[in-house]
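Run log // design_07
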């Protein structure tokens, strides 16, 4: 396999890891106003992702670093053209991380309410804007001959991209609520399961519209295969949740996110940044990539370290596999 093709799909894998793992973190954060009936409920929800959210978030750093090293032209165009959207994502992630650490530092309800609001916003903004960004990448944006983005932030907020953003927002929300039902017990678990059933129906409709629009406009053979896989997994996850099989539902929703992200990369390939104004200005895996020597070195580094990262991630989830209960939260408060 050509190294440029290999690294295109390695970058895709990195973003799959990020959206699958940090996606349910976003969903749990957004669920606080719907599932957190009191302070104990909110602490239970936050504690379900407390041991893993920062590890999940590091996937975006690895994905960005891989993008920078393997496709520097793509990285430069993306981060310069989308810098306002990416800045908003970064500020939201900072606000969310700060809130996780600071909300318990003082006992006042107003203090906790303020940081809970920051968690919700810090989860919803990235969930929306990542979808907007990737939809724009697939659709193409105006680029000049030097591959510089010539549009504005408002050009990125077009109907197709906004539909992509709403799709990721709803998908991550449902993914996170299912995770909450998997990691909690009692009444909170049942509320999460019912909420996932309602949000899942809306997600199925919106995601179907987005994938259909993408397929009709930019679809390839492999896009349709992956899009159908995502649709089947999403419906299967919804049905499993209705039966109370949270583990199966969560696994199928993870497959949904993975297949959906891969389908967008399949629709994009072999371009990495299509130019909507002039195809000659498009960035491809060929004119955006690093040298063969750089990609070769990176490949050996990935062979050594990627399995170690995956093993550590798996071990972390195994250690923190138990459900979080109200009793454990109340006992820790004394």
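design_07 sequence
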């Amino acid at each position: 396999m050509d190294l440029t093709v290999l690294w295109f799909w390695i970058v895709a894998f990195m973003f799959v890891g990020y959206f699958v793992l940090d996606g349910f973190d976003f969903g749990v954060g957004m669920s606080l106003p719907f599932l957190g009936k009191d302070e104990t409920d909110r602490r239970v929800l936050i504690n379900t992702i407390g041991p893993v959210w920062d590890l999940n978030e590091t996937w975006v750093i690895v994905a960005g670093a891989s993008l920078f090293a393997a496709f520097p032209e793509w990285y430069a165009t993306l981060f310069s053209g989308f810098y306002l959207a990416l800045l908003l994502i970064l500020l939201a992630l900072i606000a969310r991380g700060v809130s996780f650490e600071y909300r318990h530092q003082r006992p006042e309800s107003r203090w906790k309410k303020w940081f809970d609001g920051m968690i919700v916003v810090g989860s919803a903004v990235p969930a929306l804007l990542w979808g907007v960004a990737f939809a724009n990448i697939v659709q193409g944006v105006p680029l000049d001959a030097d591959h510089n983005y010539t549009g504005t932030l408002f050009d990125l907020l077009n109907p197709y991209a906004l539909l992509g953003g709403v799709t990721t927002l709803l998908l991550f929300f449902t993914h996170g609520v299912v995770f909450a039902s998997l990691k909690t017990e009692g009444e909170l678990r049942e509320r999460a399961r019912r909420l996932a059933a309602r949000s899942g129906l809306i997600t199925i409709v919106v995601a179907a519209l987005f994938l259909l629009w993408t397929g009709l406009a930019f679809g390839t053979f492999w896009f349709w295969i992956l899009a159908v896989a995502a649709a089947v997994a999403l419906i299967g996850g919804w049905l499993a949740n209705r039966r109370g099989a949270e583990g199966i539902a969560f696994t199928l929703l993870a497959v949904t996110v993975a297949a959906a992200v891969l389908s967008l990369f399949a629709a994009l390939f072999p371009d990495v940044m299509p130019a909507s104004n002039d195809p000659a200005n498009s960035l491809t895996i060929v004119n955006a990539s690093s040298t063969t020597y750089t990609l070769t070195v990176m490949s050996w580094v990935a062979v050594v370290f990627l399995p170690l990262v995956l093993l550590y991630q798996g071990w972390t989830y195994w250690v923190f596999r138990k459900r979080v209960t109200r009793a454990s939260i109340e006992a820790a408060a004394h």
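The radius of gyration is 20 Å.
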